[in-house]
Design brief:
The protein is mainly α. The chain has five helices and two strands. It has one domain (2-146). It is 58% helix and 10% strand. Helix 2 (38-44) packs antiparallel against helix 5.
């Protein structure tokens, strides 16, 4: 099963790298502007932050890796606590009346089990949030890849005008936005 999933991951990565590297060659005599590709940005973002660099938004890289580092810490911490309470509960079930953790000797068995379940749920939530952060990284690269060539005009004007209504023309004050 691991070999099959490993092969699938390799195929997906190689496909994305192939898409990312495929670009028209430019010669020294004809410097053509290369088209910015949102798909290429998303495929590069399989390595978190690479798509943001491609989109000229490198300032987002510390945010992405900071989020991963924070989530990694919380995942590790919750996993260690979950494992500790699981081992304590199993020790108490197999050795009635004894405890493995002296600080928790006064806790009943069901409280130890509740602590284990709480850390287990938090651990799973942290893993889901980490996957969400990774997905957000991909979506961010894709969306800003599409918006890369978007030009915002400085010609936003506001002034008086006339609006035609079914009851006649009426003076008005409004904002004119041209797309």
């Amino acid at each position: 099963m691991k070999a099959v999933s490993g092969k699938i991951i390799k195929i997906v990565l190689l496909t994305c790298v192939g898409i990312a590297l495929h670009s028209p060659l430019t010669t020294f005599h004809s410097l053509q502007a290369q088209e910015h590709s949102a798909t290429k940005a998303m495929c590069l973002s399989l390595l978190p932050g690479a798509g943001q660099v491609y989109n000229h938004q490198a300032w987002k890289i510390p945010i992405i890796y900071g989020a991963f580092a924070g989530m990694g810490y919380f995942i590790y911490d919750n996993y260690q606590s979950m494992k500790m309470f699981k081992d304590e509960y199993l020790f108490r079930v197999n050795n009635p009346g004894s405890t493995n953790l002296p600080n928790y000797a006064s806790y009943p068995d069901n409280s130890i089990l509740s602590l284990y379940n709480s850390y287990n749920q938090t651990f799973q939530l942290m893993v889901i949030i980490t996957v969400g952060i990774y997905a957000l990284n991909l979506v961010d690269a894709y969306v800003f890849g599409h918006l890369f060539e978007f030009q915002m005009s400085d010609d936003l004007t506001m002034g008086p005008g006339v609006i035609a209504t079914p009851f006649g023309a009426r003076p008005s004050l409004g904002v004119n936005i041209t797309f």
